[in-house]
Amino acid sequence: MDFKEGDQEVVSVTGSTNHLVGVTPKRTRKWREFMKKRTKGEKILAAALVLLAVFALALLVSLIIVASRRPPSVCFSAECVRTASMLLENMDTRFSPCSDFYKFACGRWPEAHITEGAVNSWFADRTRYLSSKIEGVLSENATAADPLPVVNAKSLYASCMNTTRMDELGLEPMINVLDRAGLPSSLPDEETAVTFSISKTLAKIQRVLSMDLLIQLSMAVDPKTNKTVMVVSPTLGSSSLPELVSSEERVAVNSREALGLRLAYMTGVMTTLQPNASVTELGTAALKILVVDSQVRSDIQKTDTDDAPTLMTFAELQDIMDNANSTGTPKQRFDWMEFLTVLLEGLNKHVSVNDTVYVSSPDYFALLAQRLHRTRPETYQRYLWWFLVTSMVPHSTEELRSLKDDLYEALFRRSRQTRATKCVKYVKSFFNMAIGYKFASMDNLEKTTAKVKSMLRDITDSFERLVDSLQWMDTVTKRNAAKKARAINSFVGYPEWLLVPGQLEDLYKDMEVIDGQFLLSMVSLKGVEVKGILNTMGEPPINDTKGWVADPLDVNAFYGRGSNAIAIPAGILQSPFYFLGLESLNYGAIGSILGHELTHAFDVEGKDYDEKGRKESWWDEDMTRAYDVRAQCFVTQYDKFSFTSKDRLNGTLTLAENIADNGGLREAFHAYEHYVQRNGEEPKLPGLEHFTHQQLFFLAFANVWCEKSSLEEDINSLMDVHSPNKFRVIGTLRNLDVFSRTWSCPEGAPMNPAGKCVLW
Ligand SMILES: [Zn+2]
């Protein structure tokens, strides 16, 4: 049939109708011979047929043209199919989207993701996945192409995995570190306390391990002199070496049980170090250490203030401590000059009592001086000694390691991690950029980075349009908000400098690993780190060209208030956050996360920083009042969410995050609408063709927060500054008019209540 030929020509050539009836000369000749033999009626009929055929062909061609200019109606790319099956697997359609959207989107997530005893959310799941990939990279032999830091990371991993070697070394590395910090190998007593000086020991602990005990050290720039000065703040004892659980993790047992578990663990560790000592005596010593810890905690709480650190001289700080209300001969005195001399030994830095220091909560230092004044030296020597010991326990012998494993299993009710998982975590805490380098050289994320940055620009534009439409805000504040939004710097994927030859080596300068010495290697790395920080003292601030606020392999996203920058690490650029096949899904997932980070610049804390990240408010009284009224709406609203009648969400604690969640989602939704205006409608998602793109946007958003958690974990999550995942979904969607319109939720439906809160 002739139409077939014509058909093919249209597709391959231009589609111009002139070419459609382009017949070959040969065929024309045959046609003439054929027509000569026909009657007049036949000829008329033939002419009509030809006309009809031409018309039909033209119609078909124009249909094909129209169709070829529109996207295929359903997206069958691998990403689309994978996302569709993921969403379908997690959804529980027995729930109505207007009654409980979290259940609707995530109801079957727990049964689809069974991992015994592990924290289960998309974030944890993707972190585990990345961790196993890192494990693969670190366990490969080093190659000639590996930069030195990568070689070192692999070597540190190998020594971490070599537990036989660790057991052979026994307690020797731990005793070595204690000795360098000026502490005895076993529990300090009256005798060891004779030569104990708290100022000297704290300085040594800083130099050896970069560990903050009682006093936290950091650096800041004094704007008057433009020089880096020390900042001292109160702190609770915590390890500077990598730990099995993060300090944010919540204990899953009541405080009485926790105390019992801690005491048993401490006595166990001490008994291992001193098998001949009396267990009762060790138990009493352990209890006293915990008492000191709780005193420090209460002193911190008592003196906690929102005030910015006070700039004073070391002499003035010394006076505050010496003049603290105490009588009699002091049992101990903190001597700042002695502390500084030991701290800066060998660094070619000279500090005098007239040099300045930022002091946060000066009252805390007065309280500390009082406690030292009244307390016998060995009590504090034991306190410091214990924190060093317990921070080295996970990196010591099998016997000690299991004691800490047992403690964490009981405290956090979680199963034991494999050695490889632990080692990945430990090595990552030192060499995250070196590991990032290996991934960056394989990943080729350039195009993705550009796309995510462009999405962030869309969301920033959307934020500006939303700000512009706000009724309660005056024009000056609107202008300042837009200025700050536009000034936000963004870091996406991997740092740009990471693959530039020499840069990685420069970052890890002097960071060496000692083969087969896991603990001592980490301690040596800490020593280099602290030396680098101390060397900045008295110097003008250096422009940190490697400034990247995050680990590139973190499954997370960040906003830095002081830098006014957003970081979207490569680690989160994976499904179910990105690469979902359609932009409606990408905007719903990573888009709402980008919006969340952006809105942090304008949350209840972020709003008091300017576009350069300086703590300088650009809000006048009226505007502050108007902001606070709207912020209070969120507090009241989120205060009402609860898991049980007594376990309620704290709307004040979670306020900044809730503001970011609500603003972020709205900004991402409007940004997607604009995307469609520019790029046209997208194809449908297979198996979910009955959903509009707006609906898919909300499904992808909710899906990010799917998790499996027990009531106990839910209750624990109420201590976090983020609302529990379920309420991050429900809380935000209930405030969004456009959500209710998208899903046709009637007024007053659980997901469409009256009294919506809107800030950004
Ligand atoms: Zn946040």
From TrEMBL:
Compartment(s) where it occurs, according to its Swiss-Prot or TrEMBL record: Cell membrane
Cofactor(s) annotated in UniProt: Zn(2+)
Coiled coil: none
Lipoprotein in keyword set: no
Alphabetical list of InterPro entries matching this protein: MetalloPept_cat_dom_sf (IPR024079), Peptidase_M13 (IPR000718), Peptidase_M13_C (IPR018497), Peptidase_M13_dom_2 (IPR042089), Peptidase_M13_N (IPR008753)
Domain of life: Eukaryota
UniProt keyword list: Hydrolase, Membrane, Metal-binding, Metalloprotease, Protease, Transmembrane, Transmembrane helix, Zinc
Pfam families, sorted: Peptidase_M13, Peptidase_M13_N
Transmembrane domains' residue ranges: 44-67
Ranges where the Peptidase M13 N-terminal domain occurs: 97-495
GO BP field: protein processing
SUPFAM superfamilies: Metalloproteases ('zincins'), catalytic domain
Principal cellular location given in the protein's record: membrane
Domain Peptidase M13 C-terminal, residue spans: 556-757
Recorded topology in the membrane: Single-pass type II membrane protein
The name this protein goes by in its record: Endothelin-converting enzyme 1
Organismal lineage: Eukaryota, Metazoa, Ecdysozoa, Arthropoda, Hexapoda
